[in-house]
Design goal:
alpha+beta; six-stranded antiparallel β-sheet
Length: about 200
C-alpha cells in the first residue's frame, strides 16, 4: 500500500494541472490554425515571457483518461454528448487577439462563451471568460459585457465585419466532480471530431 501511495503521488505530480490548463487555453486560441486530422499543435506559448513554442499532443488515449480518474479515486464517471461551433471574422481578428467565441449545445440548450487570454498579473496568468444562454451568436453577444472596453471593441468590430463559423466540434465528454486542495472542480476529457 505504501508503494501504491508513492506511485499515486508521482502520477499526481505528472498530471500538472497548470500545464493542462495552459494547453487547453492555447488549443482554444489556435483553433483557427488547426486542420482535421492534426495530431499535434505547435503554437506560441503566450504564457511564457519569451513566447517560446510549445508542442501539444491532440489525442490522449482512453487508458490515460482512466488512469487519471483512478488516480483521484473517481469511480463514478458521467458522460454527455455536446457540440460546439467556434466563430471569427474572415480576417481572424478574434484569434489574433487571443479571443475565442463559441456556441455550445448540450441537451438542446445553447450557450455562447467568450474567452480571452489576459495579461499576467504578479506572475499568475489569467483568462477572462463570459457566458450567456442563447440559441445564436448574435443573441449571446448581446448578453455579454466583459467590462473591458478593449475586448468589447474587438468583438464588436469583428461582429460588424460578419462572424463566420471557423471550426466545429462534436464530442463526448467524460467528467466527474473532484474535490482537491479545498476546491471542487470538474475533471473532464473530451473525445470527438474536429471539423474546419
Amino acid at each position: 500500500e505504501k508503494k501504491l501511495n508513492i506511485l499515486q503521488g508521482e502520477l499526481k505530480e505528472a498530471c500538472n494541472r497548470e500545464h493542462f490548463r495552459i494547453c487547453g487555453d492555447l488549443i482554444t486560441a489556435n483553433l483557427y490554425r488547426m486542420q482535421k486530422g492534426d495530431e499535434v499543435l505547435v503554437a506560441q506559448n503566450y504564457y511564457d515571457e519569451n513566447c517560446s513554442e510549445i508542442e501539444i499532443k491532440l489525442d490522449a488515449s482512453e487508458v490515460f483518461e482512466e488512469s487519471v480518474f483512478a488516480l483521484f479515486g473517481i469511480t463514478e464517471v458521467k458522460e454527455k454528448t455536446m457540440s460546439a461551433v467556434y466563430y471569427d471574422d474572415v480576417e481572424g481578428t478574434l484569434g489574433k487577439n487571443g479571443i475565442a467565441l463559441r456556441l455550445r449545445r448540450e441537451n438542446g440548450e445553447g450557450i455562447v462563451t467568450l474567452k480571452r487570454r489576459m495579461h499576467n498579473a504578479e506572475g499568475f496568468s489569467r483568462r477572462g471568460e463570459w457566458e450567456c444562454p442563447a440559441d445564436d451568436i448574435a443573441s449571446g453577444l448581446a448578453g455579454i459585457d466583459t467590462e473591458d472596453e478593449g475586448t468589447n471593441g474587438i468583438v464588436r468590430s469583428a461582429a460588424q465585419r460578419g462572424l463566420v463559423p471557423i471550426a466545429q466540434m462534436d464530442f463526448t465528454r467524460k467528467y466527474a466532480a473532484l474535490k482537491l486542495d479545498g476546491s471542487e472542480i470538474e475533471l473532464a476529457f473530451d473525445r470527438g471530431l474536429f471539423n474546419r
